[in-house]
Amino acid sequence: LKSLNGSDYKMKFGDALVETVVEFLKHTKFSKCEANADRKNGHMLVFYGFVGLFITTCWITFYYYVMKKYSPISLADPMKWWANLSALSLLIGILIIIGNRMKDKGINTKTSSFDWTFIIMILLLAVTGLLTELTRLAGIRQLAYPIYFIHLMFVFYTIVYFPYSKLAHMGYRLLAITYYKMVGKDVM
Question: pLDDT by residue (tens digit) across 108-154?
Fold first, then answer.
């Protein structure tokens, strides 16, 4: 196969994809970018918070359908610890991102309402998720279930609007960097 400009590929797709995923997981390109160095920690916490919560979703699905272990799950269960750690990572990360956006950096940056909508949506997703758990633990069912419903609406929003959000940038960038690796170019 030839690349778009007619030259041979320098790397196979699978190899380039694995290398790119490892870079994403380590955030190595982000670390090299001096202009956005202060954004790295918030992004990593949000990224790993989402990864952890995806693992939690798979874990609870396994509990429910395979092990026939139903909610509420004990706080002593490792899955609960993992879920809470992931949720805190998401919350702290998005708060860091908000803090960084609020700082006056003395440079002209473009921020659209879509950026802020997504950031606020992730904040509300994290807050309603944690409030759902806290109100259930406190035994306030009349409050827990409406908050859980609102939380699920934010989950739905995040999934449905994924292609139009900053999260989609991650997927598009993954493919773009993979392609650049295949043709032997480096991209920041």
Answer: 566 666 678 889 999 999 999 999 999 999 999 999 999 999 999 99
d(CA 63, CA 112): 41
The model's pLDDT over 58-114, given as tens digits with 9 standing for 90+, comes to 999 999 999 999 888 899 999 999 999 999 999 999 999 999 888 866 555 666 666
3-state secondary structure (DSSP) of residue 106:
coil
CA distance 182 to 7: 11
